[in-house]
From TrEMBL:
Transmembrane segments annotated in the record for this chain: 651-671
CDD domains, sorted: vWFA
Keywords from the named record: Membrane, Transmembrane, Transmembrane helix
Lineage top rank: taxon: Bacteria
Low complexity: compositionally biased ranges: 508-540, 548-577, 591-605
Keyword Transport: no
Record SMART domains: VWA
The keyword Transmembrane helix is annotated on this UniProt entry: yes
Annotated region described as Disordered, given as residue ranges: 504-641
Pro residues bias locations: 606-634
Protein name listed in UniProt: VWFA domain-containing protein
VWFA domain: residues covered: 172-384
Organism encoding this protein: Yinghuangia aomiensis
InterPro entries: VWF_A, vWFA_dom_sf
């Protein structure tokens, strides 16, 4: 158990104190939290047997991270006066969850002339009454760089164990890109490697963020990091992510510390943090300390503390060294940053660090890392099309939000983990993943059924309910529809398949309001006949030309035998939207008093002529009016209104009435001439 906090002991006149500060996680740009439970010892020679004295030659750091030795007999002339010691860590002298770094790589930043001295420090000669602290210049702490490769910050480093990646397809990952000048002409290849990683995650429930560093973070040549996680589950999302660093340029210096500290300060949580670098660190801290051309203990120590802060959040750190600048013993520093397991070509899911010759190979290794997480899985990406989108176009599709549920099942024996249900979240990927366990078989057929939202409808693609792709080969995978919205697909144990399902908001048919037209609302053929005949009554003393007034109903018989010759000039009636007033009906033009019909829509023949002094002759036979023409559909804007019916009068009716009037006039003239003759 780590010791409780306690004060560093005070030496007596005959003793000396050596105190070492041990560190764990970075807490600020230039501050580190103490690490309790670290065990150190005093040696006379490195790796040469046990400590100098078991009673006082070992210490364990307390809760403040202080590990202190009290050296006896250091007074003048005593046994340990003037004696020096080597402070080193005992094997496995770390608390649970940590590992030691007994050696670190130092030397030129180019990677040439590398050295890997042991991580131990020599104390000054002992003098009674004196305390020797690691954070005081002269013991561990040194700001003299150059070839003083063991220059330290005075805080003993140890590394956190690397968290494991979650065992599922899809990952939230931060990509940390080295933009130091040493990348040189390989910058396009570095970006290609990053692109390959993003493309490999497309089709899975994955999101990515991107950071940069040179002697600072963001790199001095870059305006900003992009810590926000962006979904790369679709090609559109991956393209948007890659666009963020497409125009990045190179700076100078290599500061692992600040690159990782920027990640540690992000409010986002990353399941994996991938550092893509071509060289060892030559700077540290937020004010770019170090000489910028060589790697010292202090440059690496600070990178370790920031990596610890990242791991403390549960993020797995993967260090990928590219090129000669990080080959050979540079693995020691990559190991200290991430974890003790090197990539051996077969363990992409378990490797903590990689060393590769070029960025093209690095891209392939990152792709392998993505694929191993999705081995034996089916990812389902839900895309929502705009309302009204056609079935033959997928333009404008976006990732679904939270709440879309899929059920997976299989009838294949020997497969575990089924049935299973997964629901999309608000992570922006619109995706879920199913990862069955293949126990006794290496292939199965799986049915995926969607719980359809009532306000959306499935959009098929070439008649299929889903479009599936083999993520390893990029080739289409056969799909069979099951039910209205489900589908089935085959999967091998080592295969990763991604299927996209499209929906759009359901279209509602609007209720249309009928547009009024001039078409009559009735279909019955109107029928009518004249129902009255005018009668005539003289109104004055008979004379050769009596005067008379027509009335709607005869009240008396005329006296005398007036003679008169009426004239009748029929005119073509005009129509109007409504029936005309009777006063506007056509009438004879001869006598001063002309008969006025009582209804304009009915026409009758005038009476036969009669002589003064005789009884009025009965009205002559009226000519039969021509039957009205059958109604025809009104022309645009035409037709008259039939009062009280709500229907329109066809234009042919007034024409028929005019024809009838003409016939009646002709008949009257004929009768008159006969009587005269």
């Amino acid at each position: 158990m780590p010791e409780a906090p306690k004060s560093v002991p005070t030496p007596s006149a005959d003793s000396s104190v050596i105190t070492v500060r041990t560190g764990g996680d970075r807490t600020g740009a230039q501050t580190v939290r103490g690490l309790p439970g670290v065990r150190l010892a005093l040696f006379t020679q490195p790796d040469n047997g046990p400590p100098v004295d078991i009673a006082w030659g070992e210490c364990t750091s307390d809760a403040d991270g202080d590990c202190s030795f009290t050296i006896p007999q250091t007074g003048s002339g005593q046994a340990n006066a003037g004696r020096t010691f080597l402070v080193a860590q005992v094997p496995n002298g770390v608390p649970d969850g940590w590992y030691t770094n007994p050696e670190l790589r130092v030397g030129p930043g180019s990677g040439s002339d590398s050295e890997h001295p042991g991580y131990f420090f020599e104390t000054p000669g002992m003098t009674g009454g004196t305390t020797y602290a690691s954070t005081v210049p002269g013991f561990m702490l040194s700001s003299t760089y150059g070839t003083n490769y063991k220059a330290s910050g005075g805080v003993w480093q140890n590394s956190r164990n690397n968290p494991r990646l979650p065992a599922h397809c899809g990952v939230d990952v931060a990509l940390v890109l080295d933009l130091s000048a040493s990348v040189g002409s390989a910058l396009p290849q570095l970006k290609d490697a990053a692109n390959t990683f993003a493309d490999a995650l497309t089709g899975t429930p994955s999101r990515m963020a991107v950071f940069s560093f040179d002697q600072a973070s963001p790199a001095t040549s870059v305006s900003a990091n992009h810590p926000e996680l962006r979904p790369v589950s679709t090609k559109t999302g991956a393209t948007a992510f890659k666009r963020q660093y497409a125009d990045w340029t190179l700076g100078k210096g290599t500061n692992w510390d600040q690159g990782l500290w920027a990640v540690a300060q992000s409010p986002e949580h990353y399941e994996a943090v991938v550092v893509l670098t071509d060289g060892n660190p030559t700077r540290f801290a937020d004010d770019a300390q170090g000489d910028g051309s060589r790697t010292h203990f202090r440059d690496v120590e600070n990178g370790i503390f920031s990596a610890n802060a990242v791991k403390a959040t549960g993020s797995r750190v993967v260090a990928l060294g590219v090129g000669k600048g990080v080959e050979g013993v540079s693995a020691l520093n990559l190991r200290a940053l991430s974890g003790p397991t090197a990539y051996d070509g077969t363990n992409p899911g378990r490797a903590d660090y990689y060393q590769t010759a070029d960025f093209a190979a690095a891209g392939q290794q990152l792709r392998d890392l993505a694929m191993v997480q999705c081995k034996g899985s089916i990812s389902v990406v839900k895309q929502i099309l705009p309302a009204g989108a056609s079935d033959d176009g997928l333009t404008g599709a976006v990732n679904a939000g939270a709440g879309w549920t899929f059920d997976a099942s299989t009838a294949t024996a020997g497969i575990g983990g089924m049935p299973a249900t997964a629901t999309t979240t608000d992570d922006g990927t619109g995706s879920v993943a199913f990862q069955p366990s293949f126990t006794t078989v290496d292939h199965g057929v799986f049915t995926i059924a969607e719980t359809q939202h009532t306000d959306h409808e499935l959009v098929t693609v070439d008649g299929r309910n889903a479009v599936c792709t083999d993520l390893g080969t990029g080739r289409p995978v056969d799909v069979a529809n099951t039910g209205t919205t489900g589908f089935s697909v085959g999967l091998d144990a080592g295969q990763a398949v991604s299927c996209t399902v499209y929906n759009r908001p359901e279209q509602t048919t609007p209720t249309s309001t009928p547009t009024p037209t001039s078409t009559p609302t009735h279909t019955a053929k109107p029928t009518w006949k004249p129902t009255w005949k005018p009668t005539w009554r003289p109104t004055g003393t008979p004379s050769p030309k009596p005067t008379w007034t027509p009335t709607g109903k005869p009240t008396s018989k005329p006296t005398g035998k007036p003679t008169w010759t009426p004239t009748w000039t029929p005119t073509q009636p005009t129509h109007s939207p409504r029936p005309t007033d009777p006063a506007d009906s056509p009438r004879p033009t001869g006598p001063a008093h002309t008969p006025r019909p009582t209804a304009s829509t009915h026409t009758a023949a005038p009476p036969a002529p009669w002589s003064p002094g005789s009884s009025p002759a009965p009205p002559g036979p009226a000519a039969r009016p021509a039957p009205p023409a059958p109604p025809a559909p009104p022309a645009a804007g035409g037709g008259s209104h039939l009062a009280g019916t709500g229907a329109s009068m066809p234009l042919a009716w007034p024409a028929a009435a005019g024809a009838a009037a003409c016939a009646l006039g002709t008949a009257l003239l004929v009768v008159t001439r006969r009587r005269r003759s």
